[in-house]
Amino acid sequence: MQVNPVHKSLDEAEKQEFDDYLEKKIPRIEKLLTHFAQDAVLLTAVIEKFEKHSAFKVEFKLEIPSSMLVAGESSHAITKAIDLTIDRLVAQLKKHLEKLNNKV
User: Fold this and answer.
1) Which positions ≥6 away from 30 have C-beta within 8 Å?
2) 100 pLDDT tier (thresholds 50, 70, 90)
3) pTM above 0.85, yes or no
4) 5 in Cβ contact with 16 (< 8 Å)
5) What's the mean pLDDT in 12-41?
6) Does residue 104 carry a pLDDT above 80?
7) What's the rounded Cα separation, in Å, for the pair 91 and 71?
8) What angle is formed at CA 32 by the lines to CA 59 and CA 76, rounded to 5 degrees?
9) Is 2-103 a CATH 3.30.160.100 domain?
10) Domain boundary assignment for the chain
11) Residue 2 contacts residue 42 (beta carbons within 8 Å)
């Protein structure tokens, strides 16, 4: 799986925290994508910081050959925003894979 992190309005420490934590959480998504070719899957991870609210918005776009899944969450902590977004994405991915398996 190819991962494309995008940062908006983050300082260097926040970028590093986002990238490091995202790297730890990627295997949770990858284990569900075993029957897709590695180069056919693209995850775009966007994080944006809102200074006024001191909050972070994280959005994941997962492009797989059969669909494009989008999940997003906001939180005051980078790690919590990533966790919540991954939870949503994994739920969508499981549902999508179940539909694919029922069609076969």
Assistant:
1) 1
2) confident
3) yes
4) no
5) 94
6) no
7) 10
8) 25
9) yes
10) 2-103
11) yes
